[in-house]
Amino acid sequence: MRASALAVLERLSEAARAAGRDVLLEHEGLELLQAVGVRVPEHRLLRSADDLAAIDLERFGPHGVVLKVVSPAILHKSDVGGVRVLAGADRDAIQQAAQDMFERFTGQELEGLLLCELVKFDKELGGELLLGLRYTEDFGPIVNFGPGGIYTEFLSKSFVPGTGVAILSPENTSKERILPALGRARVTELLLGGLRGQGPRVEPQVLESQLLGFLELAEKGCPDYLRELEINPLVLTPSGPMALDCLAKLGAPVPSARLPRPVPKIGKLLQPESIGIIGVSSKINPGRIILKNTLRAGFDPKRVTVVKPGSDEIDGCLCVPDLESMPGKVDLFICAVSAEQTPGLIEELVRLDRAESLIVIPGGLEERAESSAIAQRMHQAIRDSRSTASGGPVINGGNCLGVRSRPGGYDTLFIPQFKMPETTGEVSPVALLSQSGAFAVSQASKIAAVNPKYLVTFGNQSDLTIGDYLEHLKDDQELQLYACYVEGFQPGDGLRFLRAAREITAQGKRVLLYRSGRTSAGAAASASHTASVAGDYEVTRQLAEEAGVTVVEQLADFQELFLLASFLGERKLSGRKLGAISNAGFECVAIADYLGDFQLAEFAKETGAKLEELFASCRIQDIVSVHNPLDLTPIMGDEAYDGALRAVLADPGVDLGVLGVVPLTGALQTLPAGEGHREDFTREGGIGPRLVQSFRESKKPFVVVVDAGPMYEPFLNWLIEQRVPCFRTADRALRLLGQWAAG
After folding, report:
1. Count of H-run helices and E-run strands, the chain
2. E strand or H helix at 250, and its extent?
3. Which of 34, 205, 224, 725 could form a disulfide with 567 if both were Cys (CB 3.0 to 4.6 A apart)?
4. Per-residue pLDDT, 423
């Protein structure tokens, strides 16, 4: 950072605070910009119209001057007539205009008028820019760059989502990364000669230098001295970019709302050796379902203690009348009592030192204003526990369904087995981390082919956060996919999440993120749901993508990307050359239409020869030729169809494949066994088992498209159960495959 910029900011901030202001006046903001390295117009502060007499107007250039009202009460001067443009005016006209403005704004905390040089600048699209920095609660300081002027919001909203503005974080934006990061904003293309026949309108090094100054100021000055600084517009002049206007809001140190958590204790929570639980009824209630599900998941009942007065044993587990009667400290204690009882329970657990970790199930702790007293007492109990010798327990929840841990052998998801059958099969190298319990179980019910190693619902994040879990799990060598649903980050936790995600993706593993609450209405709904902190969705998306996270835009996409990433596993993509096959002409055309960033591979001669042999074996050599996409027609049968797939995937020029199976043909076995036909898609030699075998043997990624009605859903679902990635339309397959490839 330029040596004087922080000192200038400190001095200006101190003076403004002494004057009772929480903003910098415009001339103060311009002084700060100069210290950062941004060019500003010639300017002088007038305390009265008479001050004009001592000013050399020739220093203000040949085009004229601008008068601006200076008041901490007027941040948007143009909206109230606080700006006068005086092109070519003489001293007398300027004097009169100044006198008129002083009289008009008397009594509005007027500090004076700013006399500025009238600057001529590039009026073409892209000639006015916005450059700003601000402090965000979840991700810390950020810098944003995009189109400016009076059309700022209109232009930003008119671009394709994600391209209106570039968002950078000082956390991970080095000088070398600035220009690539600015490429996210479409306006950058207009500046650096991205249009045909147009050279650069600004030197890249100049733009890079100004962004670097803002990034350094954001890192050093936010939030202690500065909350927000915005140049709008930053205009293009023959001498380079120049700030015509700026807005600066002062900051203050942000007190830590939460004491550091003993995060290593997450290991005890996820893989406990002993469990305690309270809230279990002799009849069916959430606590009893949790107990039954945990025992069914394989946890030894001899290592479970149930706090239940009046009973000695339930479901083979020891019962004790109160916390003090527990035989010892447990790794995990599950709280399934009411919200009103929870703070006292936590206080007692801490006092007695009975648990390394807690899962707090009940809602009503922070979602409603009426429960604020209960929430405050709970948070105080958590804070008090941090000062104990053990550091207190880590707490998951409240307002959650808890955790299903395959290595821990327990399941607190209080869904009866008859409503959500147990997921069986080999444990998948997947962690599903969801703020919403309902989202987690709805996804789990739809992705039964995947058996996550960990399914964690963390609710209100009263203690443990999504960032804590990702940080703890990032070095788990068995995990390959981290699928995250987040409604809001706790203060500072977005940054923690990104740091962990960056380490995960650097290992070649994948992080999926669906961030809800992206509109004002959605943010309000999530606040009432899991007491979420509202954040800026675009900030989340850009910073997460920069960290290598695959950001999911639609709920339906989350499920399919989850399955796609799970099924493709550790398969690596070496390029973007696609081999495509279908038995329907329309689907071949659709594949070609929706390639996105993929390119159609050119098949090698050896591949063409193999395919022609297959055509001849099916007697379709006169109607089919070697193309990509390859149209096999409805005539080709099971064995030859699979042979064509294997030939295409074996081609050295093919990096990945898309196989369309339009099942309404008698040549392929795509129906379940039944009356009226002789098909059975599970029969050995049929297309189904052949595709499963080909997928398991292939080192190259490929997906299957089954585009048909309900009659063929069993075929598609069976393929998914066999862990073959399937889609219902070619366009959707290519779009999500493209997103997977980009990650």
Report:
1. 23, 31
2. strand 246-250
3. 725
4. 81
Structure confidence at residue 534 (pLDDT): 42
Residue 433 pLDDT exceeds 70:
yes
Mean pLDDT, to the nearest integer, of 326-345? 95
- Find the mean pLDDT for residues 597-626: 94
Q: What is the reported pLDDT for 724?
A: 98
Q: Report the Cα 690 to chain-centroid distance in Å.
A: 38
Give the Cα separation of 534 and 532 in Å (integer): 6
**CATH architecture of the region 274-399:** 3-Layer(aba) Sandwich (3.40)
User: What is the C-alpha to C-alpha distance for residues 105 and 192, in angstroms, rounded to an integer?
Assistant: 42
pLDDT of 382: 86
Residue 552 pLDDT class (50, 70, 90 cuts) = very high
Q: Is the Cβ–Cβ distance between 307 and 281 less than 8 Å?
A: no
Least confident of 191-195, 425-429, 694-698: 191-195
User: Which residue carries 């001592």 as its tokens?
Assistant: 54
Instruction: Find out whether 44 and 68 touch, Cβ atoms under 8 Å.
Output: no
Q: Are 289 and 317 in contact (CB under 8 A)?
A: no
Nearest-angstrom CA–CA distance, 252 and 429: 44
Residue partners of 696: CB distance under 8 A and separation at least 6: none
How far is Cα 119 from Cα 116, in angstroms, rounded to an integer? 9
Q: Are both 128-250 and 423-567 of the same fold?
A: no
For the range 121-126, what are the long-range contacts, defined as Cβ-Cβ under 8 Å and sequence gap of 24 or more?
Answer: 121/235, 121/236, 121/237, 121/242, 121/244, 122/201, 122/235, 122/236, 122/237, 125/190, 126/187, 126/190, 126/191, 126/201, 126/236
Taking only the tens place, the pLDDT of each residue in 128-157 is 999 999 999 999 999 999 999 877 777 777
Q: Tell me which of 3.50.50.60, 3.40.50.720, 3.20.20.70, 3.40.50.261 is the CATH number of domain 577-742.
A: 3.40.50.261
Asked if residues 440 and 455 have their Cβ atoms less than 8 Å apart, the reply is: yes
Q: E-strand spans in 398-465?
A: 402-405, 410-411, 428-434, 452-457
Instruction: List Cβ neighbours of 675 (8 Å cut-off, separation of 6 or more).
Output: none
CATH superfamily of 5-117: ATP-grasp fold, A domain (3.30.1490.20)
pLDDT band at 529 (very low <50, low <70, confident <90, very high): very low
Type of residue found at 163: T
| Phi and psi based region of residue 445 (left: phi greater than 0; alpha: psi -120 to 50; beta: remaining) | alpha
The listed CATH number (3.30.470.20, 3.60.15.10, 3.40.50.11810, 3.40.1010.20) that belongs to domain 128-250: 3.30.470.20
Classify residue 351 by burial, with Cβ atoms within 10 Å: 0-12, 13-18, 19+: middle
> What does pTM read for this prediction?
0.92
The tens digit of pLDDT for each residue in 150-196 reads 777 777 777 777 788 999 999 989 999 999 999 999 898 889 876 76
pLDDT over 70 (residue 526): no
How far apart, in whole angstroms, are the C-alpha atoms of residue 708 and residue 716? Answer: 10
CATH architecture group of domain 423-567? 3-Layer(aba) Sandwich (3.40)
Neighbours of 55 (CB within 10 A): 15
* Domain coordinates in residue numbering, the chain: 5-117, 128-250, 274-399, 423-567, 577-742
**Do 236 and 363 meet the contact criterion of CB atoms below 8 Å apart?**
no
Per-chain mean pLDDT for the chain? 92
